[in-house]
Write a structure and sequence with these properties.
Elements: H1 20-33, H2 40-45, H3 51-62, H4 73-86, H5 90-94, H6 102-129, H7 156-159, H8 184-192, H9 197-200, H10 207-223, E1 234-235, E2 238-239, H11 241-244, H12 251-269, H13 283-289
Antiparallel strand pairs: 1-2
The structure holds a DNA duplex (21 and 21 nucleotides).
GO cellular component, one term: nucleus
GO biological process, one term: response to auxin
GO molecular function, one term: transcription cis-regulatory region binding
Length: 294
DNA sequence: AAGGCACTCAACCGCAGTGGG
DNA sequence: ACCCACTGCGGTTGAGTGCCT
């Protein structure tokens, strides 16, 4: 017991924000060797970072297909919904939003959604206290227990194939879309051709799982079309940080993702007609208090 | 203009889980 | 069965930034 953390030696280990130069070194290495074996990354690249820091930088920032910026009302709704179901299982929640990282979702929840939900939950809770004191408003993740898996909307079956980042496990399926893969995107080609572990593990236990599998496969295909624009603006030895490594998802890819994503959205949101657009999905009273919601 | 405050988010920390030897 | 190396995850921190007074 008590194995020291990998960064414990401290000596010579750099901390704090990553520089564009470090990003480039890391991306170049992952292009050659693929993600994983993080222990060897600092050793082989000369990066003065611990392996954990390298992994985090990759998964939360450099990984292709990451969508940054504002969350859409749809995404908000899904996060709120899944948080009510799963609790603070950010990795699990992130698996349903393949373009978002668990860190992003966690941050967004803590900074925006938690307050939002609380604010809207308050009046609902007040009204509920007079009627349903024991079974309703808690939104506990245990509320939908595995024992209720006979329910049409049980998460148990479908969670399995979604546990890996779909967009990093590309099946290498050929695409009809024009793929302009230049710059940094070239760095990812090698590892993007790996087979999909999710596809290999497919068991099709129920209809929802099959649907999610299809979603996964389409995500894989979409990932093959991700266009990563390398915009390394080197001016007089300086690196423009803001544009050094900017991944841009082609509009047609986003369209495909959106189309396939609607399947998931249907499943997530179909019991809440007319509630999605306000971004809060009626979480305060509607979803959590309805035992047949899922 | 400047100081204080609140907010955001990248990054860190520590623990748990897992698989190989 | 046990140990250990490694990865994954969730909670937390703190630097940067913008707004307000």
């Amino acid at each position: 017991m008590g194995r020291p953390p990998c960064c414990d030696n401290g000596v010579g280990v750099k901390k704090g924000p990553w520089t564009p130069e470090e990003d480039i070194v890391l991306v170049s290495y992952i292009q050659q060797h693929g993600p994983g074996n993080w222990r060897s990354v600092p050793e082989n690249t000369g990066l003065m970072r611990c392996s954990k820091s390298c992994r985090l930088r990759w998964t939360n920032y450099l990984r292709p297909g990451i969508k940054r910026g504002n969350f859409t009302p749809h995404e908000e709704g899904i996060i709120i919904h899944l948080q009510a179901l799963l609790g603070n299982k950010w990795a699990a929640i992130a698996s349903y939003l393949p373009q978002r990282t668990d860190n992003d979702i966690k941050n967004y929840w803590n900074t925006h959604l938690k307050k939002k939900v609380k604010r809207l939950q308050q009046p609902a809770a007040d009204s509920f206290q007079t009627t349903a004191s024991s079974n309703a408003v808690t939104c506990s993740p245990n509320y939908y227990s595995p024992s209720s898996s006979s329910s049409h909307h049980s998460l148990q079956g479908m969670q399995q194939p979604m546990n890996s980042y779909p967009n990093t496990a590309c099946s290498g399926a050929p695409s009809n879309n024009e793929t302009t893969t230049t710059g940094v995107s070239n760095l990812f080609q090698a590892w993007m051709m790996r087979p999909s572990p999710a596809a290999a593990a497919a068991t099709a236990a129920n209809c929802k799982q099959i649907a999610m599998q299809e979603f996964q496969e389409e995500q894989d295909a979409a990932a093959a079309n991700i266009v990563c624009q390398e915009q390394m603006v080197m001016t007089g030895g300086d690196v423009n940080k803001s544009s050094a490594l900017e991944m841009v998802v082609a509009p047609e890819v986003m369209g495909a993702s959106t189309a396939t994503f609607s399947l998931l959205e249907d499943w997530l949101l179909d019991d809440m007609p007319g509630q999605a657009m306000d971004g809060l999905m009626g979480i305060s009273a509607g979803c959590c208090s309805d035992p047949i919601m899922f």
